[in-house]
Fold this protein.
Amino acid sequence: MSKWRISMARWLLRGAVRLPENGMGGRRPPAASDGHRPRHVAVIMDGNGRWAARRGLPRTSGHEAGLRALSSVLDGALEEGIEHLSLFCLSTENWNRPRAEIDALMRLAEDTFDSFGGYAERGVRFRWQGSEARLPSAVVDALREAEERTRRSRAMTVVFCFNHGGRDEIARTAADLARSAVTGRLDPDAIDESVFSRHLPLPELPDIDMLIRTSGEQRISNFMLWRAAYAEFFFVDTLWPDFTGDHLRDLVAAFALRKRRFGAVTGG
Ligand code: IPE
Ligand code: MG
């Protein structure tokens, strides 16, 4: 399809499912109607390094720009009425990066998690999903405090997947179940998918409906493997620091048009 036709299709798609800004500086109505809206949106935020390289800047500047992008995306998700937004901030594999980059990421993370308390008034509850292993205690404290300060907020849960790995999460859950079985608290024959789900960290977090990856890469990179089982994938070329709440709203509108079958057959 030509570029012109793609932009035309996007424009039409917007017209069909999206209402214009209300002009009063207030929140815009959601792009997707109830019942077509994803409950759980997860984002693999990729492309910070390339964003910086294109500007001749150090990779750390890309990570800073990536953090600045967060507020617009959180605003878009709130407008859209998303209940759960999971953000892949640091993977268990990212420790393979140069020490200086890891140190910079830890400093940025600590400042960011510290600064998000204000979102509590807007109904955002922060949760952390990931392993404590190797994390500086200041970062663990900042994560726990962000969780504590926003504990009572109910409009949207934002999950920081920080030092997260999908396989790590599954392995730790399996170990947890094995411990319960050994002590006789759990019958191994009773372990099925729903029992397993209930033992995952943050068991109240539903399966991912919509998984977005920025920067043109098309991989899952060990992200929330259990909950991504039936996610709809959206790969976009935009680098994470350039991604905005409006991009998110456009993708939510596109999600509303997808037909989900969960392995079954639908007519037509
Ligand atoms: C994502 O951007 C941020 C983190 C993984 C912390 P990258 O740092 O992976 O950016 P690229 O892929 O090198 O452009
Ligand atoms: Mg990357």
User: Anything to note?
Assistant: The mean pLDDT is 89. Helices lie at 3-17, 48-54, 59-80, 99-115, 137-149, 166-182, 193-199, 245-255. The pocket of magnesium ion (ligand 2) is lined by residues 46 (CB under 6 Å).
